[in-house]
Amino acid sequence: MLKTLMSTAVIALVLTGCSTANKQAAPAPQISPQAQINFETYTAEEFYKTTSVFGSSINHSGSAVLVSNDDSGIFNAYKVPVDGSKTTQLTFSTEESIFVESWFPKDDRFLYSADKGGDELNHLFVKDLEGNEVDLTPGEGLKAMMLSWHEDDDSFFVMTNERDAKYFDVYQYSTADYSRNLIYKNESGFTVESMSPNGRFIALSKNHSNSNTDLYLVDLRLKMNKPRLITEHEGDVSYYAYTFTKDNKQLLYATNEFGEFNQAWTYDIATSESELNYKADWDVSFSYFSKDGRYQITGINADAQTQLTITDHNNNRELSLPELPSGDLRGVNFSQDSKSMVFYINSDTSPSNLYSHKVGTDKVLRLTNSGNPAIKEQNLVAGEVIRFKSFDGVEIPAILYKPKQAEFSKVPALIYIHGGPGGQSRKGYSATVQHLVNNGYAIVKINNRGSSGYGKTFFHLDDKRHGEDDLQDVVYNKKYLQTLDWVDAEKIGVMGGSYGGYLTMAAMAFTDEFKVGINIFGVTNWVRTLESIPPYWEAFRKSLYDELGDPATDKERLHNISPVFFGHQVKSPVLVVQGANDPRVLKIESDEMVESIRSGGTHVDYLVFDDEGHGFSKKENRVSASNKYLVFLKAYL
User: Fold this and answer.
1) How close are the terminal C-alpha atoms of the chain, in Å?
2) What is this structure's pTM?
3) Strands (E), 283-436
4) What contacts 481, CB < 8 A, 6 or more positions away?
5) I need a surface site. Which of 224, 246, 450, 627 has the fewest CB within 10 A?
6) SS3 of 291, please?
7) Long-range pairs for 248-252 at CB < 8 Å and ≥24 separation?
8) The pLDDT of residue 146 is above 50
9) Is the peptide bond between 421 and the residue preceding it cis, with omega within 30 degrees of 0?
């Protein structure tokens, strides 16, 4: 379209020139940028008319899927029939988001979790057949999580830290009357990883450092059910459990013992022998089974994009699927008899949509319409995976989004930094990113050193080098952007959330490279943050300290990389966004960061959401934040 429109304009000019020979030249016709590339821009309100949806539990009759979506403004539970008929809303919360867990295996009761105002202290609830909502984990200050169902379908397993705020115990609940028994008391700081379907075995992990973990097995039928080490090894090797096989005979687990990336291995409980199950040139991110064990679903984290395979164990072949819409396959789940399946497809230019498929047929039925029909997909932008060299020659991966406006003029750019530390920016739909790109801002989602998904060596390159080497990656990302002839080299900013918010503030306080910064609930005082981590993070406190530093022994370094103490050095405008109920980055941190910047005379905007925690659970707040980003960027970038 662009070439056609521009060629037409050139031909028109040439013809005009020929017909006006020997006459005074007529002024060249003005072609608007919009006409040149023929696209539309949209508001944040329009972008957030899309619906976020997740959940893929299929009910006992195989007729419906349990999902959460935010069509009401916050997440509620919905019943989506697999035949494409009308969706039914099941919960009607107006204050707290509802995150679905699972249908009950024999009826249409379902489990869900919810916290209060983003405090992350989730309780587990059941919605019964009469419509009553029962808190299965009542009490103050506790956190609870669904673990799994028992294979007999008459009970389920739940983790809570109600006995000891630092560690999670395991309870078995009856589906009949919700009575429960404590089946595993966690007194030694293990992380509960997985439960065997028959309820006999628990897989536990133990963090020795951020690069060295072990797996243990507990046999609950033994009187002395002491955890048994099953991953004896030397050196720094990491392990974690995926799941147990459906016959309860093997544990499927991940390890990076044999290379840079996690491979899937099986541990035979009877023989204590392990063997390779699946490997790739990237991390095996997850692997799990259909309820009857026939299908194994395995996900590979291939260069920030999920590659998913489904293996049919009846013939040891990959399941053949009909041609699907473009995008990543996600959230695969099978009915109890494995005759049908549901899944999501997501891409950079289209939010996740739910589909159903009867195995063995060529039919795929779309069950949701998550996108705003007013937004045309051709007006959005797909990201391109790129790499650039940092200060020491290390190749840094990133995902680059080039706005349509860059076809006719240079555009400002933003380096978007993910959370963590140790997170990863990935391909996939983001209303925030697409809103900014659609309005003329180049976005590059950097996976700086220390990001997951690129091997264990890359992951550990920033250990106790935070605010130093990873910050240089951000600076060198700017230098890369300045080599692009469609980027305005003088108009480059930085933004990010959580750890990305920290690196944003570090970039603004410790360098003069960036014109603006947008800090979204970012850590700014590492001393306070590491001294006040939630008690339920106790199991990996050592790992966190290995990564960042122990405030008891590394206080001086942590002080020196904390932007809050150096806000007076910030020379360019900053926007700070904070949730008042954030349990990870306390509001006082952002309060002090704002005052520290103002003390140096630099402009800072401060946006606080009274009903949010560490992120945005409410659509209205996402819209407000996105509008604020755009207003701020138009004013200062």
Assistant:
1) 30
2) 0.91
3) 283-289, 295-301, 306-312, 317-318, 328-334, 340-347, 350-358, 364-366, 384-389, 395-401, 411-417
4) 413, 415, 442, 444, 487, 489, 492
5) 224
6) coil
7) 248/151, 248/196, 248/197, 248/198, 248/200, 248/201, 251/194, 251/201, 251/203, 251/215, 251/217, 252/277, 252/287
8) yes
9) yes
